[in-house]
Amino acid sequence: MIDSSGTAAVRTDDLWKVYPQEPAPVQAVRGLTLEIEHGDFVAMAGPSGSGKTTVLNLIGGLTRPTRGRVWIGGQELGSLDDKKLARLRLERIGFVFQAYNLLPVLSAFENAEFTLLLRGVPHEERRARVEALFKEIGLEGLEDRRPSKLSGGQQQRVAVARAVVGEPALVLADEPTANLDSTTSAALLEVMERLNHEHRTTFVFSTHDPRVMERAHRLIRLVDGRIDEDRRVEPAVPAR
Amino acid sequence: MRTAALLRLSLRSVGRNARRSALTAAAMALGLALLMFSRALAEGGHEQWIDSAVRLGLGHVAVQAPGFLENGRLEDRLDEDRVTRVEDALAGLDGGALVVSWAPRLSTSGLASSAASALPVRIEGVDPEREQAFSTLPDQRVQGRYLEPGDRLQAFVGIELARRLEIEVGGRFVLTAQTASGQVEGQLVRVAGIFRTGIQEMDEGLVHVPLSTARSWLGTPGAATTVALLLTSSRHTDAVVAELDRSLDGAAGIRVLGWREASPELDSAVRIDDYGDYVFHGILFAIVALAILNAIMMSVLSRKREFGILQALGLTRAETGLVVFGEGLFLTAASGIAGGVLGFVATWLFFRDGLDFSGLMENTITLSGGIIDPVIVPVFRIDQVVLSLWSITVIGTLASLYPALRASRLDAAEAMKFEQ
């Protein structure tokens, strides 16, 4: 179902991404058309090489499609230059990556406040927002630690804090629990569910992890760059 | 605030691989220190060459009649009125503090004859008191004494000339030259002292006689062929020449020459030596630039994923490049400060009394009428220090540009696939 008003959180239309490789080009995404509503909690599953990460990169404007179009909150990404696209990512999209990808030279606090700093948020407001978020997701007391001094779970929570501190409309999470144990994964997913519930932040996950899929409201299964299955699901683990 | 955040990231990144950054900074700092030392040594050497040549020759500034430099003839002289005008101009010179001393000279070509031989010579009538404050020739005395005020028929001659004329201190010989009236007249003089400079043409063919004697004998009362000025430093030459020119207001028959014009051979020698230094500095800079380029490129190539992350967080490609460029600038700034201090302190601590090259110089080496002192004292010039710092800044900046460009051209999605 396509929302013709163009105000869905995410919309793609006949999206293709082809990588020119030898001996034959690789079609990572093939004619993907979908729409994700505001406040949705979507899991995008599929085997390795099915195009999950590429779809997230296309939605996040990190790579340009070979063909087709992407809209974020009604804004078509193909019409934006590099500067405007960067601005859109900064203000409207948060990213969480499998490998945490914190900036190693910044402390946990500095990592979390980085996007606020780029947006020109005043010091006091930055401090208040990051401190509140750290308290909420159990990172109190770890503010001054560098990423190398944090556990995997702690690093991923900092990454989540960095992604959501600016209250983006959309969070794209690429296998965020892949490197975490089940307890840490559960705790992290609870945090994201709470943010989704309280702030109506839209979450789109790429994942293999059944624990993520159990909590999703919608499950999209990709095979060979195409949607193989797309259905609404009742979360097996109700949000707290 | 945004730029400050990016520069903070740059600064922290410099410290991330402390050993690599320290080695790069050390290479740059040593390069700068070496450059400063090399420039200071070259400046010291040049100043010494110039000082030696001008003290034995025409001074930093020479005031003459047009044509004298080219022909050396007595008829191209400053007459008494023009000498007085020059002396007045010197007395009123604003930059008088820059003038150590000045000396009028009356110079002509002639013949020195004794019972043993007759040889062509350059005869210079000099003011003994002024000449002693100006020239190093009196210091080259090996026998007898230099001319003194009140002397009339005394002469100060080169050692080779004395040998070939077979005369000693106290011995007499005759100088013969064409006078102002065109007559060839002789003047009997007595050897007061003998000098040895190591410069063949001076030791064989220069005779100093009292200025008053030369003026009277040559029929040129109050005249001079050159009024030579010795300055506190060769750097002031152009300023003094310009001021004297202004002061003399284009007076007819007076020409003011700087040492470069008066001693073109010396000027060429200094310029050639400078060019050699520039080639050396170019090589040094290329090595320093490669060190910076290598360090920053290594850093960029090993952090591709990080640059992808920065773009995902909302940085533009240009800003990603700025982070890398900032790293290069911080590295350059730190190296510049360290290298500047090292260059200055090391030169001052170890070489302030000069570098003695006498072990490499078995015989006296002369250059354009000057004697090269085997001890070279480094001289720091503010403009050269600033130029060295500026050069290292430009090199650091240019060497940072390419890695910055590479970082700015990374595709975010591709960069994030990179395994760090």
Describe the protein in words.
The complex is a heterodimer of chains A (240) and B (420). Helices cover 34% and strands 26% of the residues of chain A. A 6-stranded mixed sheet of chain A has the order 6-7-8-3-9-10, sandwiched between helices. Chain A has a 4-stranded antiparallel sheet with strand order 2-1-4-5, with helices on one face. The N terminus of chain A is likely disordered. Helices cover 54% and strands 19% of the residues of chain B. In chain B, helix 1 crosses helix 13, helix 2 packs antiparallel against helix 11 and helix 11 runs parallel beside helix 14. Chain B has 2 domains: 201 residues, no CATH class; 205 residues, no CATH class. Chain B is built from 15 helices and 14 strands. Chain B is an alpha+beta fold. In chain B, the strands form 3 sheets. A 6-stranded mixed beta barrel of chain B has the order 2-3-8-5-7-6. In chain B, strands 11-14 form a two-stranded antiparallel sheet. The chains are: A alpha/beta (240), B alpha+beta (420). At the A-B interface, helix 2 and helix 3 of A face helix 1, helix 12, helix 13 and helix 15 of B.
Characteristics:
heterodimer, A: 240 residues, alpha/beta, Rossmann fold, six-stranded mixed β-sheet, four-stranded antiparallel β-sheet, 7 helices, 10 strands, B: 420 residues, alpha+beta, 2 domains, six-stranded mixed β-barrel, 54% helix
